[in-house]
Amino acid sequence: MTHTGPHAPPAASPAAAPRPRSAAGEWRTAAEEAVAVLAAAGVRRCYTVPGESFLEFADAVERHPDIRLVSTRHEGGAGFMAEAEAKLTGVPAVAAATRGPGAGNLAVGVHTARQDSTPMVVFLGQVTTDHLGREAFQEVDLAAFYTPITKWTTTVTRADRLAETTAQALRTAATGRPGPVAVVVPGDLFGERVPPPGALPGAAPPAPPLGEDERDRLAAWLVDSERPVIIAGGGARAARDELVAVAERFNTGVYTSWRRQDVFPNHHPLYLGHLGLGCPAPVLAALESADAVLVVGSRLSEITSQSYRLPTPGPGAASTVAQIDIDPDQIGAATGVWLGAVADARRALAALVEVPAVPSDRDYSAAHDSWVRASTPPPGAAAHPGPGLHPWAVVEAMRAALPEDTVVTNDAGNFAAFLHRGWWYRHPRTQLAPTSGAMGYAVPAAVAAKLAAPHRTVVAVAGDGGVLMTGQELETAARLGLALTVVVFQNGLYGTIAMHQARELGRTAAVDIGGPLDLASYARGLGAAGLTAATPGELADALAEAVAAEVPTLIDVRTDPDLISPEASLTDLLGRP
């Protein structure tokens, strides 16, 4: 390769002269400098499918003593792994993919990070500089492709700027509302030798606090309200203790937003429920009748807001709304607010706790009991005659067999409605779930969770549709010696779409997956253990065996395809007798 540019070292034979030196020290490759920046920022893994457009980058990660290069079976799996690790740890995670097809496969994980506000940096190898713009092999305009699904996408044009761009990418990913950043690098730049970088952009700036005036107004508002509630989202993930303290100080009920159930202990008497898909009417009652709603760290997505219906402030509406969010663009974006405060959730809630308060003697026991009833399996679920197990019975068995602090990663699909209802998140950072609804998330997320927290019990929960998309990452788990469990609800359907089709059209199309498939054999073929459960007793035994195993274990649970949601059967939706 011919080096050009103001910092190019003199030409030499590959085996000849020692590395050239600058006054500041030894010159390294641009890839080595970038990886050094990542390691200094606390990045400990890079997930990838190796590609020819970032050879030196993968090599630099592999050789760095503080970062592990994790080879996955598909870039989609790599993206989900990076997203899950960052969600679990709060530290920006890294993935890398090659041009064209690799970047295309990775995009689903990046979009998941965007919708989930997860800090993540992805490196995309591009065609070489001299071939750019010629529709070279696998060339795609990666900057144009990734800009809509990232906080920032940039193309590096000089090798000596890669370390600086890497530092800026880490800063941007973690500043304000976290999110993914894409760094596009022509393949020839990674291997160029560059001088040691100068001053690099610093870490994310301190998070903004809650102003005293805002604090006092919010505190008085919560005290004076008759029926206040809090909606807490992912922005409150690092503020769980403060959130509990505020709820108790002001005697205020708490809802958790879509797939953010672990931000507040579900067994707490002030917990009012999860604002997810198909939220039961009794669970929503306290929100519908609230006269004050404090939204903390939630963008009030379509699902959390029940199709942008709640909360409903304004003339004639039941409630006034205040919102605390670190991103000013989110405040008032989904609904009008009485007060909007741009602040870090943890600092804001800690400030509110300091205010002396004597709230009204409110009673949320009935609202909490509504959630308890909604999350209780119906009588006879364990004795369901079949065919297959009742989905409620699967969740019941999980509650009996798994530790309370199990990290649960869940996929998209109608099976998840039973999990969202039946599994109580009592401990922080125990739920890894995509608010984007991306299928195939659970297994890769479990791999990342076990790598990041090897001492934790990690269980992936998926449908057969999701596990057939990314279940090959069981090979990654087996190769790396990760003892995790995968519970598959196998009903032979793309259940969510079958439900929508039955409800809207009265018939189904293209939702039959087939089977029953021997997913236990599939797992064994990938180097994992595989078990099958068709009765409650078999499932209890399988869960006990899986939790005690020292290898990844998939449990193929055969469930009744007619039980499409906690409220409906497919037969009823189709209008069949």
UniProtKB/TrEMBL annotation:
GO terms for biological process: isoleucine biosynthetic process; L-valine biosynthetic process. One of its GO terms (cellular component) is acetolactate synthase complex. Keywords: Thiamine pyrophosphate. Residues 29-144 form the Thiamine pyrophosphate enzyme N-terminal TPP-binding domain. Residues 411-557 form the Thiamine pyrophosphate enzyme TPP-binding domain. Coiled coil: none annotated. Pfam families: TPP_enzyme_C, TPP_enzyme_M, TPP_enzyme_N. Residues 13-24 have a biased composition (Low complexity). The keyword Zinc does not apply. Belongs to the TPP enzyme family. This is Thiamine pyrophosphate-dependent enzyme.
